[in-house]
């Protein structure tokens, strides 16, 4: 076998070995997921969160009308310069101890405008995100719940945002800890 042929064979074997070694390699979840990858995971403290989908909601459509139920008394409908915006999340406790999911979020646009979720009544709106104590390997929403089995397969964070937000993209979901520190961010589609 010629020296050139041995070099090519050795190089091919090295590439194959590196490729096989990389199979099954799991990188740590990032602290940032972007909107081009709905379904991306982020670690926010001891809980892993996943963006299922985010989108403008039409309160007059059959599906979306279910998402805007359970509003606090006195909540007004969006004005002509506002719209409902839904962020649907999934979470999993990947640790060996009970962990509490957060209830502390906000959406930020590129102009620095903060939008905070409207606290929905989970007794009226089965899609509403609520902070839950998750046992090891448990998820939120839990299996066999309306939110889990629904079209989005996530718990709903409902925001009332300005229509100008579409000009101030990307929006970012900030996932905060109990001391209001940012644990992770997810870039959102609009």
Strand percentage, roughly? Answer: 25-35%
Main beta sheet, described? 5 strands, mixed
Count the DSSP helices. 3
Within the CATH hierarchy, at the fold level, what is the topology? Immunoglobulin-like
Count of domain modules: 1
The helicity comes to: 10-25%
Strand pairing plus helix content: what structural class? alpha+beta
Tell me, rounded to a whole number, the average pLDDT: 85
Please tell me the CATH architecture by its name: Sandwich
| Element-by-element helix/strand order | HEEEHEEEEEEHEEE
> What is the CATH top level name?
Mainly Beta
- The backbone outline, from C-alpha atoms, is globular
Strand order of the largest sheet: 1-12-11-6-7
DSSP strand tally: 12
Enumerate the spans where pLDDT stays under 50 for 5 or more consecutive residues. Answer: 10-30
The CA-CA distance between the termini, in Å, is: 60 Å
Determine Rg (CA atoms, Å).
21 Å
Describe the model.
This protein is of the alpha+beta class and 190 residues long. The protein has a single domain, classed as Immunoglobulin-like (Sandwich), CATH 2.60.40.1240. Helix content is 15%, strand content 33%. The chain is built from 3 helices and 12 strands. It has helices at 3-22, 62-65, 146-149; strands spanning 32-33, 41-44, 47-57, 82-93, 99-100, 105-108, 114-115, 133-134, 139-140, 155-162, 171-176, 182-188. It has a 5-stranded mixed beta sheet, with no helix packed on it. β11 and β12 form a beta hairpin. The longest helix has 20 residues, at 3-22. It is globular. The relative contact order is 0.21.
């Amino acid at each position: 076998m010629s020296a050139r042929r041995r070099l090519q064979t050795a190089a091919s074997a090295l590439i194959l070995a590196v490729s096989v070694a990389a199979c099954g390699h799991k990188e740590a979840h990032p602290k940032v997921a972007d909107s081009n990858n709905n379904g991306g995971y982020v670690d926010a403290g001891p809980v892993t969160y996943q963006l299922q989908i985010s989108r403008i909601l039409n309160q007059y459509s059959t599906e979306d009308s279910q998402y805007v139920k359970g509003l606090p008394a006195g909540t007004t409908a969006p004005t002509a310069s506002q719209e409902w915006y839904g962020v649907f999340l999934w979470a999993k406790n990947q640790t060996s101890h009970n962990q509490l999911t957060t209830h502390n979020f906000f959406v930020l646009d590129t102009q620095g405008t903060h939008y905070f979720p409207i606290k929905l009544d989970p007794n009226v709106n089965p899609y509403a995100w609520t902070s839950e104590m998750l046992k090891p390997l448990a998820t939120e929403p839990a299996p066999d719940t309306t939110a889990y089995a629904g079209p989005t397969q996530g718990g709903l964070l409902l925001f009332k945002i300005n229509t100008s937000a579409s000009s101030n993209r990307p929006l970012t979901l900030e996932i905060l800890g109990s001391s209001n520190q940012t644990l992770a961010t997810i870039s959102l589609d609009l």
